[in-house]
Design goal:
By secondary structure, the protein is of the alpha/beta class. It is built from 10 helices and 6 strands. The protein has a single domain, classed as Rossmann fold (3-Layer(aba) Sandwich). Strand 3 and strand 4 form a beta hairpin.
């Protein structure tokens, strides 16, 4: 993939929304976009055109053309990430979000910003101490020089509200598997 400014890791809901608002191609043309393999292969398959018909998303074509990169997390590493959380949080994260969180945990330097509109994924990001990587779709577009009105749950203000709530839960250690984020022993 040629070097382009601004590196973003996108969750399925953001990939789908970018297709819905018609900015996917423009964003992939001006930024480095990474999509977790589970999102690419299973979660971001269709977008709703508003006509009651799902339109297909062809991320394989974008990969082949060098417009995006797909990153895969090892199953053992994903289990390690999942084990950091309590059972409620574990059940709240979908596979694509878990893979994205694992990718971010393993990134050695200059990690990408992570864009999602899912509360539990943002909460998990905070619990992992990675909230500084969270970015709304609205901010992704602004940082890329693209302007478009986004639906409320993709806005900067919605993300900030989610992060405030998630940080409050993190202060109480709610969502983690044990003290200081270490998994509890199983009996």
């Amino acid at each position: 993939m040629p070097t382009r400014p601004r590196l973003f890791l996108l969750d399925a809901n953001v990939v789908i929304e970018l297709h819905r608002i018609g900015l996917w191609q423009r964003l992939t043309g001006c930024c480095q976009i990474i999509v977790p393999s589970i999102v690419a292969e299973r979660e971001a398959q269709f977008w709703d055109s508003g006509e009651g018909v799902g339109k297909p998303i062809h991320l394989g074509d974008d990969l082949a053309a060098g417009r995006i990169a797909i990153r895969e997390a090892d199953a053992a590493a994903m289990k390690d990430t999942l084990d950091l959380f309590d059972p409620v949080m574990q059940q709240s994260l979908d596979a694509g979000e878990l893979e994205a969180l694992t990718i971010l945990r393993e990134w050695s330097q200059d990690p990408p910003s992570f864009s999602t509109a899912d509360f539990k994924a943002c909460e998990a990001l905070c619990l992992l101490g990675l909230s500084h990587l969270a970015v709304s779709l609205e901010e992704v577009l602004e940082r890329s020089g693209l302007t478009h009105r986004v639906r409320p749950h993709f806005s900067r203000s919605a993300l900030q509200q989610v992060l405030r709530r998630a940080r409050a839960a993190g202060v109480q250690r709610s969502g983690l598997a044990g003290v200081e984020g270490k998994p509890r022993r199983r009996r």
